[in-house]
Hints:
361 residues, alpha/beta, 6-stranded parallel sheet, 15% strand
Amino acid sequence: MDNLSEWRYKYENGNFGITSLTNSPKRPLTLRDVSEASGVSEMTVSRVLRNRGDVSEATREKVLNASKALGYVPNKIAGALASQRVNLVAVIIPSLGNMVFPEVMTGISQVLEDTDLQPVVGVTDYLPEKEEKVLYEMLSWRPSGVIIAGLEHSDASHAMLENAGIPVVEIMDVDGPAIDHCVGISHRRAGRKMAKQIVKSGYQNIGFLGTKMPLDHRARKRFEGFTETLAKNGVEIADQEFYSGGSALAKGREMTAAMLKRSPNLDCLYFSNDMIGAGGLLYLLENNYDIPGQIGLAGFNGVEMLDGLPIQLATMDACRNEIGQNAAQIIVETLAAETPMESKCLELSPKISLGKTLKRR
C-alpha cells in the first residue's frame, strides 16, 4: 500500500491523524493527493479550496479534513499566473522598533482579516536605497496592493509605485502630493498646534530634541511647523539636539543632560517623539527639576505604554491605528470597485493631551 492509499484508508476508517504523516512524500503535495485522500474529484477539491461553486457541506467537510490532515497548502503562485496577482498587500515601513508602526500594522490587520488579503511587511530603516530594494522585491511577487510610509521616495521608488498598476496608499503624512491615495496627519499642523500650546502655557526659552531630519521627513515637517509658529509669536528655538540609532529612552536622557548643561536657562523641551521625551522626563525627575514649573516638556505620538511614567507626558496622538485601518480599507474598496476609483487623501486630526508636564493656562 503506497502512502496516499494508506492515508485514504485511514481517512475512510476514521483513523486519519497526525501520525499518518510520518511517511509523507518529499515532493510537494498536489490537488491530486487531496483528491485521492478524500475520494473526491480534483475539480471538486479545487472548488472547495477556492470557495467557489456549489458543493455539498458533506463533500466540503471531507475535502477540508483531508487537506488539513495532509498538510496541503494551495499553490497561490500557480493561481496568480492567471490573475497576475497574489492576495498579498505589501506594507513597507521604516522600523519595527518604533512603537508607532506596530499599531499601524494592527489597524491594517484588523481590516484585512475579514478578506482574502494578507499583509506582508518590509522594513527600510528610513534609508531611500533600502526602500528601493524592498519595494522592488515586494512588487516582483505581484501583490494586490501597496501600503507605504511617507510621501518622499527616490525617483526609482516613485517610478515603481506609479507604474505598479495596483492601489498604492502612502501613510502617516498628507503634507505633499500623493502617488495614488494617502492617509495620515499633517505634521506641519501638528507642530504648529504644539507650538501654540507651549507659547500659551507661558514658555519662552525652548529647546528641541529629535531625530536627524534628513532621514525622518515627518519629524522635519513637525519641526518646520513648530518653529514657524514660534517665530510668529516672537520666540526662537534656543537650542537643539539630534540623534540617530540606539535606545530612544537612553538617548532622551543623554540629550536632555547635554542640552541643559549647555543651556541651563531653558524653560521648555519639545521632543520629536515620546520615547526620547520619556528619557528626558526621567532624567529631570532624578535631578529634582520642578515639572512643569521650572521646565515644561512635550512629546509626540501618544504612546500608551508610557502611561505608567511617574508624571504623564504632554503629547499628541498620531492616529496610528486609524491610519492603518483606513489605508487597508482603501485597498479593499479599490480592488472591489468595478470602475477605477478616484484618488483619495484622508487627513486625520490628532489631539493634544496636556498630561502634567505643561502649565495649564
